[in-house]
Amino acid sequence: MSAGLSKDPARRTAVEVVLAVDRDAAYANLLLARLLRERSLSGQDAAFATEIAYGALRWQGVLDDIVAVASGRDVALLDAEVRAVLRVGAYQLLHMRVPTHAAVSTTVEIGKEVAGHRASGLVNAVMRRVSECDWPTWVARVAPQGELGRLAFERGHPEWVAQAFLDALGGDLAELGRALAADRPVTHLAARPGAIERDLLLRHAGDGATPGPFSPYAVRLSGGDPGGIAAVKDGRAQVQDEGSQLVALAMVRAAVDGRDGRWLDMCAGPGGKAALLSRLLPTGGRLVATDLHPHRATLVRGSVSDAASAVVADGTRPPWRSASFDRVLVDVPCTGLGALRRRPEVRWRRKPDDVADLVGLQGALLDSAIDAVRIGGVIVYATCSPHLAETREVVRTGLERHREVEQVDARPLFDGVPELGPGPDVQLWPHRHGTDAMYVALLRKVG
């Protein structure tokens, strides 16, 4: 049966998203948006499909542990279709107010559509066993015994991710609980300077929208589809987390010695920061925005002003001359642990070994950024992760390799932002600031 003929298109859509993430490594946000549009799902149906798809993905590893107990078998041995159906069904039972009979019966029916009638007996049996215990009881039964492991399980995170957050928070378990709980995304917009004033964007954004508390260009939405906002459609505004805006503003606000007008944004795709930077250049200034991937460079090209050039380039093998730029932003590829609330599948897709694989690239890009800036210029090192190996350790080892640079206190660049810690670097947090967990370090070339 096609999704269009399903008796329950919202649940069917959610299952298909969860299945595609599992089987095809799909990006949930891109696929879900396309399916909702193609199937004309809107209002409550779209909201319900989004909630159960994203919820099942956020809690995937924990749900799998429970399904394994309820089924008496390793979840990895189940057919992918059955696995997706049970994840969506278990999420409804344990984390939503869906009545038990409705969650069980609808999951069995969707299972027949997606996995075939032969799977219905297994799906029915597992769902009924899951329904025999509430969430606290399952936590007591299945969660690891250690304090950290139990907290990670209760909040739906892998223990290694919780450990990374705990390290970045200085070992405060109470705050870790708040950090892990802050996993619901809020859509932020940025008014592109010179294209639209934020007050006008607020009016475009509709009821419930509020000005961002930190960026003068930010608007926080209360819900809805940002793609339907006129100013976003015509390019006067963009969807961009306020934390990302603050990274670009840190680049602009940093003091440089001498001339100022030649800026570089390495790893610029998809172009949100470059779009702001290109519109905040000093008169006569020029931004070079680069990305390794041609399709991302194309996105950058479509977002920047005429004062910028978008170039396909490998930042570790740069085509530009040394000491060519006054300011360099290097927002390095990372694990994305700072944006788990927006990318629900990432927390279970990423593995600890990924960190080690990325750290070498991050260090190489920082080396190139340092080489690219002139004496008296500044480098902003940024990443969307709080993992210390990707943040302070990359900066620390970079400083050891490059005696010609010094670290500068970045906190003054975040005017009005509270709870920035002891410095000299800055780590934003969803539970503290309502932004993605962006990290920023400011370096200056002195010789």
Q: Examine the coordinates and then state which fold CATH places here, giving the name of the CATH topology of the largest domain.
A: Rossmann fold
Task: Report the biggest beta sheet as strand number plus sense, adding barrel if it closes.
Answer: 8 strands, mixed
Instruction: Estimate the global geometry from the Cα principal axes.
Output: globular
Cα-to-Cα separation, first versus last residue: 68 Å
What is the highest CATH level, the class of the largest domain? Alpha Beta
Q: Count every beta strand, where a strand is a DSSP E run of 2 or more residues.
A: 12
Oligomer: single chain
Residues in helix, %: 40-55%
The gyration radius over C-alpha positions equals 23 Å
Strand content: 5-15%
Structural class: alpha/beta
Low-confidence sequence ranges: none
Mean pLDDT: 96
Number of helix segments? 20
Q: What's the CATH architecture of the largest domain?
A: 3-Layer(aba) Sandwich
Q: What is the name of the CATH superfamily of the largest domain? A: Vaccinia Virus protein VP39
Work out the count of structural domains: 4
